[in-house]
Amino acid sequence: MLRRSLLSGPLRSQVGASRPLSHPIYRHCSSHATPTAPRTRFAPSPTGHLHLGSLRTALYNYLYAKQTGGQFILRLEDTDKKRTVEGAEQGIYEILRWAGIEWDEGPDVGGPYGPYRQSDRSDIHREHVNKLIESGHAYRCFCSPARLKTMGLRRSKLALPTDYDRACAKLSKAESDERAHKGEGHVVRLKMPDDPPPFHDLVHGPIKHGSNAPRHSAGAYEDPILLKSDGLPTYHLANVVDDHHMAITHVMRATEWLPSTPKHITLYNAFGWTPPTFAHVGLLQNKERKKLSKRDGDVNVGVYREKGYLPESLNNFVALLGWSHTEKSDVMGMQDLIRQFSMDRLTAGNTIVDFGKLDYLQRHHVEARAKSGTAEDIIRLAQREIANLYGTQTAPEGPVASRKIDEEFTRRLFEVNAHNYITAPRFASSVGYFFQPPSYVDATADKAFKRLSKTLAEHPEDVGECKAEALRFLSSIPESEWTPERLKGMLSEETHGWKGQERQVLYMKFLRWALAGGANGPPIHETVWLIGKERSVYRVQTAPLKQTERDVLVRKSWEGDVETCRAVAVELLETVEWTEEGVRGVVAKEWKRRRMQVIFEKFLRWAVVNGDAEAELVGKMVELGREQAVERIKGAITTEAQREFLAERVFGRGGIAKAGGEVVEEK
């Protein structure tokens, strides 16, 4: 049965074509005086997760409202029931509140201009569609989808515009009313003028679109649908009607809506209303200047929250994606953003998103929290991740016994190293040398050793003096005086007596190499303090300073990695479903360290197909069968010659894993 019209007959009398705008369904929306302060809004659809672009739109509208003493309104555009996702509405509330964006009026807090859910305003929308039909600015369209498709194909073959031909606009009012009254399905279209109305945009300036007259003379009319056949409004109608009756004064949104604005201005003119002030900001793009997507990084705001990014970091980040300021630093909290924000500084062009900037801002905001004593939640995350990675005891080093990893120790580590904190997992993996011997063979160590080795080759006696001085100083300090303040003296000229910056720089390089394998971290005196006296002395004594010494460590590391690969491969292959898809999943196993991923694939290739780079590894393993493939892996790399050959294939000089000739950084 065809749906009965929502715009005529008995149902029309229920909606109330003659209902005055003072009717209670408007909740006093038209009786309020024109607002003296700006009113902005954020109107998301509950169709999924809130993404970075939406957060930016909400933030800009919020900042402007707060900076001008106005109101910020949250309205849900939820009329697309097919795309509405359960729980998405609550997710919007949670993310916005987490970000510190509070609304003055909205679905969950109420307000004088409600209701604030679009689906609860259907009577208002239908009322206004009736008025447009009565005034001749809109008309019912009874054309079926099949007829519209046929018309479009025919006009396309003739190289004509494929817009609607206004067949139903020619119907008499009596015929249109009668067909609607009988329940014939239809939509309602806006009758666009020959010349779209010009308007002024705060970002782009005066906007004037070309005339529609040539298309109209060809019988093609871009008459947008205002009311769908199910009686629900489209974005164009609901957006304009709701903005007007909620007294919205400023509309800030992305430039993707710029082409639709003439339609909205046409609607404002048809109703006899004054349009709000518009500001359209550029889109967010990747480095290839394409629309930002999941392939370019996470776009779901909730993911950043789960990873441990602070709300002030993310707000700061998205605020800078299309807006400039006059501050000396890009690092700004919410109050700084409110104070600085101006629509005059919004950029018209699209913005290329550099996620490295987010990490930079996160470091600074974390450090600010640490200094203000408000980093307890961050410290707990770091402590949990450190416990997951390193357990409850530090690893023994030579004669130095292990010790308990307590919360006080990890708290001190965070406090002195907060400027290097981005997320808990990354922080925990970067401070491993406080809980286990430093790696002198990974990618970071390789770079540090190269910087040190030049001096080692030219002036070995200088490095020897650095080592001797460090041992003398560290050994001279009793445990009772092992404090950061006391240890800071090891770097002073009064202590070591060296003149000139060159020797001081070498001393710092040596200490960073010996204590941490060249890894970044807290200042040297803080690092020594946390590592402890015995451990610091042992590392200074035993750190490799010759290539031959380092090669021994490389070999040990390499052999351990190969055995790890063997054990993991056997375990996975003995249980995986023996299909091409199952085996491919094993070969493509993800490791925390990319270096291990490279070694794993090369080890399997050596074990199964004798290192043949051209062979189809997965296909050969499936062909061999589970038993034979596992046996080859168990028996591979057993002779010294084989180890030498594979080590040369996998490791370059200095112990860095290589793939295709490129250095593979530790992740």
Describe the overall structure.
The structure is a single chain. By secondary structure, the chain is mainly alpha-helical. The chain has five domains: 39-111 and 289-349, Rossmann fold (3-Layer(aba) Sandwich); 123-281, HUPs (Rossmann fold, 3-Layer(aba) Sandwich), CATH 3.40.50; 375-434, no CATH class; 443-545, Orthogonal Bundle (Arc Repressor Mutant, subunit A), CATH 1.10.10; 549-663, no CATH class. Helices cover 49% and strands 6% of the residues. It contains 29 helices and 13 strands. The strands form six sheets. A three-stranded antiparallel sheet has the order 3-4-7. The chain has a two-stranded parallel ribbon with strand order 1-2. It has a two-stranded antiparallel ribbon with strand order 5-6. α11 packs across α13 (355-372) and α25 packs across α27 (617-624). It starts with 8 loop residues before the first helix and ends with a strand. The model is unreliable at 1-33 and 651-667 (pLDDT under 50).
Brief synopsis:
With 667 residues, the chain is mostly helical.
Main features:
6% strand, Rossmann fold, 13 strands, three-stranded antiparallel β-sheet, 667 residues, 5 domains, elongated, mainly alpha, disordered C terminus, disordered N terminus
CATH superfamily of the largest domain: HUPs
Task: Kindly report the average pLDDT value.
Answer: 86
Radius of gyration: 34 Å
According to CATH, the fold-level topology of the largest domain is Rossmann fold
